[in-house]
Structure formats: structure tokens, C-alpha cells
Amino acid sequence: MSQEKEEYRNQAEDRDSTINQMLKTFNKIQENLNEIKEREGVLVISNPEDEANSIVRDIEAINQLMKENEALNQELNRKIRNSDLKMAEFRRMIANLNRQIEIKNKEIAELNLILQGKDAKIGELYFSLDSMNTQVAQRDQKIESTIDDLNTAYYTYGTFDELEEKKIVTKEGGFLGLGKTESLLDNMNMDYFTKIDIRKQKSFLIYAKEAELLSKHPKSSYEFRGEDKVDSLVITDTEAFWKNSKLMVVLID
User: Fold this and answer.
1) Residues 114 and 171 in one domain
2) Can you tell me the distance from the alpha carbon of 189 to that of 105, in angstroms, rounded to the nearest whole number?
């Protein structure tokens, strides 16, 4: 009788050990499913730049958990098949787990499809942004070039003989060679002009006994400076000075 009790007790211990192992495996599977559910809940990311990388990391983690669950589920089924115990409740629990795992596998497949779509959309977005940045850069360059052109002027100076030789001025009018006045040619030779940025250059060194402007500029917009001779021409009102012409010709003597 004592031997029978001992055998019964050993069988009970084996059964309890088997049940505990099965419960431990079952609980691990359930924990993985809960973590998968939590990760699925945070797949929507607000920052587009981090969205793809974040989704990839979460889906990789979910895939890893699903693989672990599959291995644990196979182990649990093997234990049940090898057990002599009648475990109808465990079998129902396993069937329920299998359904959950099947559902999660379908969800993972859908998430992978969504990720592929997001990758394509993000790629299109980056392409659009690159194209837009290129267009903006080209527009800014064109605007800058236009502004530079608007602020570009040309000047030259010299005696009448020098300017005439360079095909910049001529004399016209008068009678019988008398009373002719200096005037600018319609097609001046621009090779002898110096290009300037009117935003930066306001003063021009002359160093002559006398000087006058042959190009047309308001007298109130400039002044000649010097004591006994003309040292320089200084523009006092840039906008007014260059309003009518972006060419300046100074006649010196």
C-alpha cells in the first residue's frame, strides 16, 4: 500500500511539473502577444523623417516575437502530445493561442505592405523636396543675378582727345567749326568702361584741373571735391544719380 502511495505521489509531482512548464510556456507566449499589441499601437509616428526607420524597427521586433511564439507554441504542443494527462482546457487554450498567432501573422503581412507603401511615398516626398530645393536655388540665383544687374553700372573718364579716340565722345553742332559741344556717341565703345556695383562704389578718383559729367545725372546727386583741383567725384544720392543712366562719362582737362 505504501508503494502505491509513493507511485501516486510521484505521478502527481510529474503532472504538476508538466503543468507548471506548460503554464510557463503559455504565459511567455501571452506576454509576447501583449508586447506585439503594444508595439502595434505606436507604429504611427509624427515625424516623417523618422517614420520609416521607426516602423522598420517595430516590425522587426514584432517579427522576432512572432518567431519566438511559434517556437514556444510548437514546444507546448509537443509537451501536450507527450503527456498522459487529459488536458482539454490546455488544448482549448492552445487553440485560442493559435488563432491569435494566425491573426497576428496576417497583421504583420499587412504592416509590411503598409511599410512598402510608406517607403515609396517617402521616396517620392524626398524626390519632390530635392526638386523643390533645386527650383528654389535656381530662382534665388536668378533673383540674385537680376538684382546684381540692376545694381551694375559702367564709368570712364579722360580728356576729350582720349575719349574721342576710344570712340566714346564726339563734337557736334556749331557753325563753320565754331561753337561745337561735346556729346556722347550713340554706340559707345564699352571696352574702355569699368564695371562697378553702385551699392558699393560711391567715390571716383579724378585728379584733374577741371572735370565735368558728359552723361546726364541730376546735379543734386553728386559733387566734385578738391581744393585747387578736382580730386574726386562723390555720389551723394545713389538712386537719383543712376536713375536715368547706368553709364557715367567724366570729361577732364
Assistant:
1) no
2) 82
Same domain for 138 and 159? Answer: no
Contact 32, 68 (CB under 8 A): yes
Q: Which of 167, 214, 70, 65 is nearest to 57 (CA)?
A: 65
State the virtual CA torsion across 108, 114, 119, 125 in degrees, nearest 10: -160
* CA quadruple 90, 91, 95, 96: dihedral sign: negative
* Judgement on whether residues 125 and 216 belong to the same structural domain of the protein: no
Last residue of a domain, one of 131, 147, 163: 147
CB atoms within 10 A of CB 251: 20
Same domain, 160 and 59: no
Instruction: Tell how far CA 59 is from the center of its chain.
Output: 28
The verdict on 141 and 163 lying in the same domain is: no
Q: What residues contact residue 88 under an 8 Å CB cut-off, 6+ apart? A: none
Q: What is the mean pLDDT of each run of 10 residues along the chain (253 residues)?
A: 53 57 68 68 51 62 71 71 59 72 74 68 68 75 83 94 93 61 88 94 94 94 93 95 93 92
Domain span holding position 23 = 2-147
Instruction: Give pTM, 2 decimals.
Output: 0.50
The answer to whether 156 touches 163, Cβ cutoff 8 Å, is yes
Q: What share of the chain is helix, strand, coil (3-state, %, to 5)?
A: 60, 20, 20
Comparing C-alpha atoms, which of 17, 22, 101, 23 is closest to residue 63?
A: 101
**Closest of 72, 88, 84 to residue 21, by C-alpha:** 72
Residue with cell 528654389: 136
